[in-house]
Each structure stands twice: as C-alpha cells, then as structure tokens.
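Next up, sample data:
>
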Amino acid sequence: MGATTLKLEHSILRTGADLLITGSKSESNRALILKALYSDVVLKNLSNSDDTKLLQKALSSAEHTIDIQHAGTAMRFLTAFLATRVGQKYCLTGSSRMKERPIGVLVKALKDLGADIQYAEMEGYPPLNINGCRLTRNYVELEASVSSQYISALLLIGPSLEKGLRLRLLGNITSRPYIEMTLSLLNRLGVLTEFIGDTIVVHPLAGLDEEKIITIESDWSSASYFYSLIALSGVGTEIHLNHYFKNSLQGDSVVQSIYRSFGVDTEFTQEGINIRKTAPASKQQLELDLSDAPDIAQTIAVSCFGLGSPCHLTGLHTLKIKETDRLTALQVELSKLGASIEVTQNSLTLKASSSMRADQRITTYNDHRMAMAFAPLALSGAISIEDPSVVSKSYPDFWDDLSHLGVLFK
C-alpha cells in the first residue's frame, strides 16, 4: 500500500471467511528479550509487525547506535536489557515522536539498581547513552500508574540479575494483565516469581536445563478490529480467526466479553475462534474502565460511533503518551464524521449518533491503531484513511485481510 491515502468504499462483509493473524506483538517482544537472555528458548508464531522486526534487528545488531523508530515497547525493553550488557556501550534512539515519549521513570529505576545511563538530549526522554554493567542491587521502587511496560522491562531482566529482583509498585497499577503476561512467560522458562500486594519478586535463573519452546498466541488487539467489523455487520455474519486460546495471557482478550453488548458472540474451536453477530447492538450507554486494556479503546469508541451507541470510557490516561495523543486524535477524527464527543486526561464520552458523515478523510498521526480502528466504518459509508502503510507497525497484512473479507478499496 504505497498510496498516501486509501479510500475504502461502502462495503458489505463476506461471511464465513477464515483468517490467520500472526502472534501477539506484546508476547513476541517479551519472548525475544527472554531468548536474548537464554539461548535455549525457541519461539514459534512470532509477530510479523514492524515493532517485533525492529526489536529482532536491534538484539542481533553489533552497532553502537540503535534506532527503534516508533517502537515504544522496544525502547522500554531494550533500555533495561542493554543496561545489563556488561562492557557494551550503546546509544538508543528513535523517531521524533519517540523523543517526546517519557522514559525517566524506568531510567531512574534502572539507575537505582546500579545501571549507567545518561540522557543524550532532553532530561527524561530518549535518546539514551547506555553503558552496560553489572546491576548489583536487587530492590527498587517504581511508580506503577504511568506504564506497565516499565514494570515488564524490569521483570524481564530480573532472572538474569545475580540476586534476582524485588520490585515494589507505588500507586495504582496500570494494565495489570500485561504484568501477568510477563510473569507467566517467565514461569514457562522455570523462573520462580511472586506477586503479593504491591511487591513482585523474581528469583534468579542462571540458565535453562533444557530447550524451551514458546508458541506465541495470535494478537487479540488485532482481533479487536474484526470484532468491530462483525459488530457493524448484519445478524448472522461470521468469521473465523486462527491461533486464539481460551486461557489467554493477553489483557485485550477482554474484547470478547465487551463486544457481547454489541451482539457479537465468541465460540472457541480447536483452531481458534468463531466470532458471529447474533443480535442487534444495545443502545444503552456502554460504561467501561479500560485501565487493563487501553489499546482497544480506539476500536471500542469507533464501534460505538458506527452503531449509534453512546459510551463512557475511563482508565485511558496512558493514551496521552502513545504514538500520538490518542484521546485528542479520537476527538478530532470522530468529530469529522459527525460525532458528539468529549475527552479528558483519562476519559472519553460519546453521545449516540444517528448517521455518519461519509467521504471524510481520517488522519492517522503515525499511529497504526488510528488507521485500523477507523477502517471498519467502511461498512457504514465510504471513508478515506491517510498513510495506510502505518499499520505495518503491528499488523502488516491488515489491508489484505480486509480485502479478503470483502472490504472494497479504491
């Protein structure tokens, strides 16, 4: 998709299609750090996203300067990982937007453990000059409400530290399922962990006794766009998505219960999930706290708009520091389509709408989730998506998969 704008024609979804979405970006990136720490780890069904490819490249690079572009997860995980590479020196940098995304909370925690990290430009922000060294201390406190990725970054290096890690979390914990995902992956390798109250303990693990295979579950945040498509389709429309598990580690798997109020049911099969529109969407206001799954907020807000259903979404404070300020971006772009919407630092309130203003051009702000969240509105009317290639950050095959489902492009 080389075009700067992609026009989606008013479309009808083809029912009965089968799709294979690659592994979760969140799981893949955690697993790659673990493989870098323990060579006996074998990974299957890795994500084919830009972020995962950038992390793979960075982990195999012999270069002094590592540029991770827009990949926020890679920035956080690599900051911690590279800090433990004894005797190695790195400059970790990224895009202009990445240089605006704060990382001071994580850097301070790493320094408290004994890391040698300096800011190359602005205090508290990338790029970072990292001198890898042995982290001699094992206790650290961290503000837990800013980003769970800071917490996971520390947990991932925890077993490689001589004394392990004892991490005390201060304040309200954001995106707890992502922390649980990290701990579960550590447990798969045989790492002993404890999460009691506000304290997480990761015991040291010098090496693996045998080869460990980690099969990555397909990405639930990517599946959310198909839940939106089904929600906006007629009763009886159904598609099948492969490699999804009932006992998922991913917080975004909550999408299956949320979309029940939109008349979408989920059935687990041996290969994955069937998602099916079984009833009209409820017109009652949807009230959700998305503290544990903020990445699906855009999808849900757009679904509600397309269905003419009001919603009040809270727990969204982390969206202000993502690829863009996602709350402001949602307000601007949904307003173009005729929405009545208000946002605060932490919430989004959408009033019920009767119709969509068609043939509008959606700006994506270098944010993959803006492009993918708005695409299902093609089922309500023609819509144009600027910079469609931005989806490669997490889901390179997105437009091909939409075409396979019957969405028409111009």
